[in-house]
Amino acid sequence: MVSKAMEMAVTNPLTCFTSSKPLSNPSSILRAFTVRCSVSLSSDRASTGVAERPWKTSDARLVLEDGSIWRAKSFGASGTQVGEVVFNTSLTGYQEILTDPSYAGQFVLMTNPHIGNTGVNFDDEESMQCFLGGLVIRSLSISTSNWRCAETLGDYLAERNIMGIYDVDTRAITRRLRQDGSLIGVLSTEESKTDEELLELSRSWDIVGVDLISGVSCKTPYEWTDNTKSQWDFNANGRDGNTFHVVAYDFGIKHNILRRLASYGCKITVVPSTWPASETLKIKPDGVLFSNGPGDPSAVPYAVETVKEILGKLPVFGICMGHQLLGQALGGKTFKMKFGHHGGNHPVRNLRSGHVEISAQNHNYAVDPASLPEGVEVTHVNLNDGSCAGLAYPAQNIMSLQYHPEASPGPHDSDNAFQEFIELMKRAKENA
């Protein structure tokens, strides 16, 4: 390494200030000083005298199936990854988003431009690992400031082999996704791969019809025994102290769903997505929860059959993927939305009460209400596009929501849905 020193002498400090009064003794104030700057040059640049840039340069590409190529800077893991690009409009909670299993197979683009300023901690994780394919952001914070921060976002992603890119025009990509719909993309830091190769990869991969649930579900049943911490235990007024046993099907369940059920006094047995309905009925629980999860509900007919076998025998509550599976099990149809709903700020109208709830949502598929049989009631509607956001079938003790009532990190407008599930189980138990 070669070191080059530059000296700059300031000989006229009077140019640094002005005064309305003449100085009686200028020499007592004026001081000449010298600034020395040292710049290291790599051996291959020493001959040209060109220094290494002290900032990161573009070393990654996002290639979309529509042919657009977006240059960016990488953080986290390196390599090449393919996934469906979706945008999330949440202003907070990037760590909960990273650990939401429903994002399996997807690249999440955050519309909030500044990400990483609070770092990451180990209290806010919604699952045991990160399942998304990559993270796309506008600006990566150069520093972290939070009393719970355990490490930086970049280190966190690198340890979990998750790719991230920044310094990319996320606003332009979001507008493209809203206009053209969700697009398959390829993230790559490998210079050896040409743009044409990456474009071909994006056009040869599809997320529709793929069973993503089996890759995120637990492998064996387990009891949820973690205590609910005080900061998670809210809306406790009115609980009667009854305990209900709930079997929760793990299609990619978030921890906060389990926390909220436990906070309402439930004993919870979590079972894999392939757990037979006959085994659930043998346990004789008070109710069954069908959780959120990634991908196409039409790609998991085994899960639909499980739901069918349980309907009418136990009270059930479906959330997101669980809601879609219930819709199919009741004879309805699901369809892929143009760009889905992803964010913590979606308005939903409760048609029973007339109230509007601000909700957290994450799904690319929806139930077609026109395909549902008589007796099935649409209880909630998304006010952004009028899509079905909730169902009920009182004759069979069924309720479901196409969004996240547990809403970690928030909002908590819909938390009372858990109380409704408790009341559903209570009535069924009294009428048994």
Automatic annotation (TrEMBL):
Enzyme class label: ligase
Top-rank taxon, per record: Eukaryota
Cellular compartments per GO CC: carbamoyl-phosphate synthase complex
Enzymatic reactions: L-glutamine + H2O = L-glutamate + NH4(+)
Keyword line: Amino-acid biosynthesis, Arginine biosynthesis, ATP-binding, Glutamine amidotransferase, Ligase, Nucleotide-binding, Pyrimidine biosynthesis
GO biological process: 'de novo' pyrimidine nucleobase biosynthetic process; glutamine metabolic process; L-arginine biosynthetic process; pyrimidine nucleotide biosynthetic process
Domain Carbamoyl-phosphate synthase small subunit N-terminal: 58-188
GO terms for MF: ATP binding; carbamoyl-phosphate synthase (glutamine-hydrolyzing) activity
Xref: CDD domains: GATase1_CPSase
Pathway: Amino-acid biosynthesis; L-arginine biosynthesis; carbamoyl phosphate from bicarbonate: step 1/1; Pyrimidine metabolism; UMP biosynthesis via de novo pathway; (S)-dihydroorotate from bicarbonate: step 1/3
Enzyme Commission number(s) from the entry: 6.3.5.5
Subunit-level organization: Heterodimer composed of 2 chains; the small (or glutamine) chain promotes the hydrolysis of glutamine to ammonia, which is used by the large (or ammonia) chain to synthesize carbamoyl phosphate.
Family the UniProt entry places it in: Belongs to the CarA family.
Functional description taken from the UniProt entry: Small subunit of the arginine-specific carbamoyl phosphate synthase (CPSase). CPSase catalyzes the formation of carbamoyl phosphate from the ammonia moiety of glutamine, carbonate, and phosphate donated by ATP, the first step of the arginine biosynthetic pathway. The small subunit (glutamine amidotransferase) binds and cleaves glutamine to supply the large subunit with the substrate ammonia.
Protein name stated in the entry: Carbamoyl phosphate synthase small chain, chloroplastic
Organism classification: Eukaryota, Viridiplantae, Streptophyta, Embryophyta, Tracheophyta
Gene: LOC115995429
